[in-house]
Every structure is written in C-alpha cells, then in structure tokens.
Amino acid sequence: MTSVRFRLLILALAPMVLLMPLLLFLGMTRWTADYDEVLIANVESDLRIAEQYLSRLMVQTEEELQAVAGSVEFARTPRPGFEAFFEEKRAQLELDFLYYLPRGEATGTWPVIESAAQGQGRTEIDIFSGAALSAISPDLASRARLPLIETEAAVPTDREVEDRGMIIHSATPVRLPGRDGVLVGGILLNRNLGFIDTINALVYQDAVAGGSRQGTATLFLEDVRVSTNVRLFEDVRALGTRVSAAVRGQVLGEGQTWLDRAFVVNDWYISGYLPLRDSFGDYVGMLYVGVLEQPFTTAKRNAFLAILAAFVAVLLLSAPVFLRLAKGIFAPLERMIRTMVQVQRGNMSARNGQVGASGEIEEVAGHLDDLLDQIQERDQRLRSWNEQLNERVDKRTAELQRANEKLEETFRQLVMSEKLASIGEITAGVAHEINNPVAVIQGNMDVIRESLGDSSETIRTELGLVDRQIARIQTIVGKLLQFARPGEFADLDQTVPVSPVITDCLVLVNHVISHGDIRVETHLHAEVAVRIDPGELQQVLINLIMNAVQAMEERGVLTLTSAGAERDGVAGVRITVSDTGPGIAPEDVDDVFAPFYTTKQAEGTGLGLSISQTLIQRAGGLITAHNQPDGGARFEVWLPAATIKPTPLQQAV
Fold first, then answer.
1. Reduced to 3 states, what is the DSSP secondary structure of residue 129?
2. Which of 138, 195, 221, 642 has the fewest CB atoms lying closer than 10 Å?
3. pTM higher than 0.70 for the full model?
4. What residue ranges do the domains of the chain occupy?
5. Architecture of the domain made up of 491-652
C-alpha cells in the first residue's frame, strides 16, 4: 500500500519527475542527432581531402610523364639506351614502371594509352591482372599479391588470394623528332604504405599531434584492403581483409558514397567510402577514411550522465526539504500505521496514545484505539471458544478412530468366516458326492474278487490299478478336507516340512494344470521345517499356483522352488512360485496384496492374496511379489525355521 508520505511527495515533485526527464530526453536526442551530423560532415570533409590528394598524385604523375616525354634528354637518348634512361627516370619519379611505346604499338590496349596515342594525355586508376604485372616485373606481381583473410559480414568468396594490382596508370603522347609514340608510367597502390600514411597524416593532423580523433585510411581493390593503416593487431596491418557486404553493395554496386557508421575489422568507425572508377568507367575500388567512434560515444555518454546527475541531485535535494515541511502530517499517520502493523502481527495491546497532533488526525487516532479495545475483547472470547471446540474435536476423533479399528477387525474376521463357510459347504458336498460312490466301487471290487475266486488272478493287474485309483481318490478328498478345515487336522504349534506340502498342493490342483499346455518344474531343496498350520500353508500355495495358471492362460512354465534362506540373520525357508505370463503392471506391484484388488473382473473377490499375506505374517513370515527380467511374475514366501524338529507323524502328513 502506498504511504501518504509517498503520495504527497509525488504530487509535489511530479512536474520535476515527469516533465524534466521528458525535456532532458528531447534535448539529448536533438543534441545527439546534431552531434552525429557534425561527425558525418567531418568525415565527408576528410574524404574530400583524401580524394584531392589521390587526384593530385594522379595529376602530378601525368605532369612528370609529360616533362620526360618533352625533354631534350629523351630526344637525344639513342634507342639502345632507352632501358637505362627509363630506369633512371623511373627511380627519380618514384614510379613502379615506365616504358615507351611507338605509335604503331599503342592501339588496342588500355584506354589511357589509346587516348595518348591520339594526342591527349590521360591518367586513370586501372586494375592489372597478375599476369600483366608479371609481364612488367615479377617483383611488381609479388608486391601486389595479398592472401585474403576471412572477414565477418563480408560477401562470401572462394578466392584465397588477391593477385591483381591497383595502378595509377598514366600515358602521355611523345612528339619529338624521331620519337612518335606514347610514354607510359604507373604507380602500384597495393602495399603502398607511404601513399596511405600520407593521406592519414593529411586528414588527421590532430591525431598525429596527440589529438582525440583517431582516424584510419584505406584503399580498396573492389572490397579487398590493398593498402591501409587499419590494424589487425598492434603492428599488423589489416591487408587482405574485406569490407562488409552492406558497404560493398552501396558503394560498388550502386556507385554511391557511404557516410555512416560501419564496423571496420574489429571496431566501429564513423566512416566514409568513395567509389573509384577505372579507365573503362567501371567501379573497381573504394577510398576510405574514418574515425574511431568510441571516443565520441564516450563523450556523449559522459555529457548525458553529467546532465542526469545534475537532475538527480536537484531531485534529491528537493525531496528532503519537502518532507521536513510535511513532517507534522506524516509523523502521526506513520505512528498509526506502526500500531496497525503490530496488531496485524498479533500484538492486540498496541495503541496509538497521544500522537502529538491536533484536529482531525488526533480524533482518528482516538477512534482507532477504541476500535482496537473492542477487537481485543472479542478476540479473547473467540480464543476461549476455540480451545473448547478443539477439545471436543479431539475427543470425537479418538472415538471415531477406535470405532474404525474395531470395524476393520470385524471386517477381516467376517471375510475369513465367509471364506471358511463357503469352503466347508463345498467340502461337505465333495465328501457326500465322492466318498459314497467310492465306497460302492470298493465294495463291488470285493464282490468281484469273491465271485471270480482263483480266476481273478488273470486280471489281478487291472484290479490292482482300480484299487490304487480308489485310494488316490480317497487321498485327494482327505487333503481337500484338511485344506478346508485345518483346525480339525493340525495343531497351530506344529512344525511341518515344506517340500511335501508343495507336492500335495500340486496333487490338489492337477486337474486345473492338466487342462492346458502347462509344464511344471520343481526344485525342492528345503531340508528344515517351519512352524505353520499345514492347511494354511496349502491355502497360500494353492492360491499362488492358481493365480499363476490363470495368468499364463493355459500355456507356459510353472516353476516351484524351495530352499533354505536367511533374512536379517534368521534362518528360514524361501518358497518361490513363478510363471511365464505377462507379469504384473509396474504401477500395480505395490497393490496386489491390498484387499479386494483383482484383475479377474466378475470372477474373483480380490481377497486371495490379502488373506495369504495375513496367514504368512501370522506365522512370522513374509510374502513379496516381483516381475522377472525375462517376463512373468514371481511370488516369494519366506518362513522362519522351526526350533523343534517335526515328529514322524508330522512328517507323514
């Protein structure tokens, strides 16, 4: 929430805070624009000076050639002495080449030579190929050759070397007796550092004298720097680097002069680029001058910061003066705000008291204290009621928790009772429907033996087979009764070997396994007994076997193993039931032992694994479920070893 102090300050300083920055921005924008225009005008002037020097050099070269062409010394020099004469004059005039062409050999070549052959001297900038330079002088071709350096923002190229030469190409007619032809001379501008340094000294005299303008000059052959004082490093000139694509397009492509800022090799410069034509009228190069932008940018920034600092200083001096005058209003209001903050943090006894002001502010402070008194009284009442309510809620919660625990225990007992009741009914039916026919069959077998007498010896094998099958039926029915009513057949404190129980379980579920293509593998190596009711262990194992058979959908391998295993330093037996079915969904592995969890919709109650877990835990063991790496599920039952060896009667069971 914005304070009153802040609002009054804004109202008082709004003209200075809003209008002065706007005026400052407009003034600085206008000043910056004018400053930039002055810089561009200076660069344009510098470019004209460089252009004039280049023009003066071209005129001077032409005048010197005219002087040689009309000299008495040239007229008197015999033809066999031309080479020595021209070499001497070339050195005196600081030319890179100088030669004479008779009139008959001065046609069909360069425009400057054709013009001189027609009687009109001419000097232009021409581009000589590497072969043309080699024909004049191999040393000239070597000086002109420059390796190209990859340059940011330049037009992409496959060329690696610039072997052409930019030449100040001059020709003047010779009209001496016996000397009718053309005198041709030229200066190579590639690597001509004296030429480019002279331009730099003429244009940036204050930089030479220690001034602030740090300028550079460059001569381009097309977009390649062939003569420059721009530095790649401290003592390495940027020969072979190239101009940006934007500058090349405007200057060489459109023939327009560039006057703007540009990135030159490794820094920004206020730059001027002048297009250069050759004797054919084509744009073949550029003359560049530029000054480093950074000093001017720093000057503009410093000027702006100085004005901004003055503005901020005025603003900072004005605010305290205004606040001091308004302190009589701010202090009481701030005291009331502090009081409200303390109340908000829980200090209900905080009050304003005497605020040291008069009028409406003092009345507001008094009313606020009255309201705080009423709030404090109501808060105390609410706290008392809240404590009573918490006590009642805690009491009701404890009662509900006890009732819920009883309900859960009752539900578990009900589930087990219902299951045992159902199994008891099934077992009674099995005993009635199977034992009676078996007894009839057994009786008739005795009648057959008595009736046949000694003749029964011929079918003794078949009769023995029937007797054994009748005994097998009685054994199965007996084990089913033992599974359904374990309390009637075993003691809860008895010990039992594991492997025989597993074998009995396979007998009980053989009718289910034999219906499909399921192969059973057993690896029963457990030698110690465990303390558990055999019927309960049978119930757990049969449930796991039936689940495995149903998961494999009547095709696969069922593997049962038993072996000694320790857990947390306690000796015991591990029983494993694994299948080759689809396994358990990863998100369901932790839920398979939850009550009512089932994947057989409308076929199961979801209590089998939950009851199995209860039975194993009651015996002090642990049952876990896993997915096998090669597919299928694996259930492991671990039971602690019995401390008392089983009796022979228990082993027989």
1. coil
2. 138
3. no
4. 23-296, 491-652
5. 2-Layer Sandwich (3.30)
